[in-house]
Specification:
Radius of gyration of chain B: 19 Å
Number of helices of chain B: 11
Order of helices and strands of chain A: HHHHHHHHH
Shape of chain A: elongated
Oligomer: heterodimer
Largest sheet of chain B: none
Helix content of chain B: over 70%
Helix content of chain A: over 70%
């Protein structure tokens, strides 16, 4: 290894694990080989190690003397206090609320289903209503021979008027 | 903890005494506030007490304790929102931070010997450096340094793989080295 080249990112990541004794044997051997030949790596390891030693300067405050007594008393008090959420009334109310929720959900589902069906699926009576104008004049339509005659009639209004007057005279 | 599960309060008291200083130290350095550190340490014990009947010795007890501590510290920081961090009571970091260094030195020199001044300054810089790390990095570093926990145990406490802990600690140590560069040369 070039004595002045910097070590790779992977090797750098391994340096900390090497210092902590957390590298497997093969990687440890590899790092030791790198360290033996690279002053840069040696310097890196030394700086990392000295930085870690500086953490000894961090404060390590202790808990106050009465801490354990207070904690124990609080824990006992909490254990003695009845849990409101577990009382029969609250449990019954929670069960009721769940049941009411399900009922409401089912009712809503039924209403939505009804409205959807009503809007999108036509009933028999709807079809009859739609055809009502035709049904009402079915007798008149049955007197018409065919579509060719009907077509001629629509193009000649005079013929239609003649037929109407002729019909009236016959009636008189 | 098995005795605590069976309702032995004396065992619980022993457990509290065994972990109280360790937890207060971790929280104090995680949050930078001593009072809150004590409150959170107490909350850890209360959670353990509440969960005692359902306790199953699946993992090491200490990793369980520090997992609870990590969750509490995370929640605490989230709920704190944008509130600025406050230094330990008695610390003079606030006044120092708001004034230029040249104004601080004469006053401090008048109060203490130069060597003590250097030490205090170093402690302050180290504390500042640790607070620059993100939450997971900080917790991992503190568990490793204070509790001498292995990567596997830290992973258990922080819900990470040992490989992820290795990367996390590597980045954390690099960040610290950068932050404290002038003090290690």
């Amino acid at each position: 290894m070039d004595r002045l080249s910097r070590i790779s990112a992977e090797q750098r990541a391994d340096l900390v694990a090497y210092l902590d004794g957390e590298l497997p044997e093969d990687r440890t051997h590899e790092i030791e080989t790198v360290l033996a030949s690279s002053p840069v790596a040696q310097k890196d390891v030394e700086l990392l190690s000295r930085t870690y030693d500086l953490l000894d300067e961090l404060p390590r405050p202790k808990a106050p003397d009465e801490f354990s007594e207070k904690t124990l008393a609080t824990a006992r008090l909490e254990a003695m206090r009845p849990d409101v959420m577990q009382s029969p009334a609250v449990r019954k109310a929670r069960k009721g609320a769940v049941l009411a929720g399900w009922t409401l959900g089912l009712v809503l589902l039924a209403v939505i289903s009804y409205l959807t069906a009503n809007r999108w699926i036509p009933r028999e009576s709807d079809l009859l209503l739609e055809d009502l104008p035709v049904i009402e004049r079915l007798d008149e339509y049955s007197e018409i021979d065919n579509f060719t005659f009907l077509d001629r009639l629509s193009r000649k209004p005079q013929l239609l008027r003649d037929m109407r007057t002729g019909g009236r005279r016959e009636a008189q | 903890m098995l005795r605590v599960r069976e309702g032995d309060d004396e065992a619980f008291a022993k457990l509290v005494r065994n972990y109280q200083d360790r937890l207060v130290s971790i929280f104090a350095n995680m949050l930078g506030e001593r009072d809150q550190a004590e409150d959170l340490a107490q909350e850890v014990f209360l959670r353990i007490y509440r969960a005692r009947h359902g306790y199953e010795p699946n993992a090491r007890f200490s990793t369980w304790v520090f997992r609870i501590a990590h969750n509490l510290a995370s929640n605490s920081r989230r709920s704190k929102g944008r509130r600025k961090e406050v230094a330990f009571p008695g610390s003079n970091s606030d006044s120092q931070a708001s004034r230029p260094a040249e104004q601080q030195v004469p006053e401090k020199s008048a109060l203490m010997p130069a060597r003590q001044l250097d030490r205090n300054e170093l402690q302050e810089r180290v504390r500042e450096a640790i607070l620059t790390l993100n939450e997971r990095q900080r917790m991992a570093i503190l568990l490793h340094k204070f509790e001498e926990m292995s990567y596997a145990d830290i992973g258990e406490a922080l819900d990470m793989t040992p490989q992820a802990v290795k990367s996390l600690l590597s980045r954390a140590r690099e960040n610290l080295r950068t932050a404290l560069e002038s003090y290690v040369k």
